[in-house]
Amino acid sequence: MRVLDPSGSMAGNDGSGSTRIAAARKAVGTVADALPDGYPTGLRVYGADKAKGCDDTRLVQPVTALDRAGLKRAVAGVEPKGDTPIGLSLRRAAGGLPGPAHGSMGKRTSLLISDGGDTCQAPPPCKVAAQLAASGVDLHIDAIGFQVAGAARTRLECLAKAGNGR
């Protein structure tokens, strides 16, 4: 499950003369291109639908066989807008991953693509990652950060470490 941050801060400069959301779109495309055909993939976004709201997270594509073009189109269609409910989005992303009832007993991965800014703070992303990692399924939470330093970098590192990821 890809968890993309198109919150308001992603409209900021990425350090190379472009925006963070443009860099995130490129990162999603690179990841999608590297995945094998048919790889189970889904997409959740947060901060894309409301100017304010710590409940602003939605499933864009459920986990199904990889549709590279569809995934890239979906990512291209979101614009930076609102708040950053990272913890809530990670929790809901994990809930959208296939479980044993669907014949999936192997490793599951959530990939957070964000600038690490957090305007919601509840539930705490690092704590959510630790809870999910300890839930008895083989879940790994990885993070890709854009222009992250200080508290934002620490937050992404913490959730990746707590979530058995990188």
TrEMBL record:
| The organism of origin for this protein | Streptomyces caniferus
Q: What is this protein called?
A: VWA domain-containing protein
* InterPro entries per record: VWF_A, vWFA_dom_sf
At the highest ranks, the source species' classification is: Bacteria, Bacillati, Actinomycetota, Actinomycetes, Kitasatosporales
Parts forming coiled coils:
none
Occurrences of domain VWFA (ranges): 1-166
Q: Which Pfam families match?
A: VWA_2
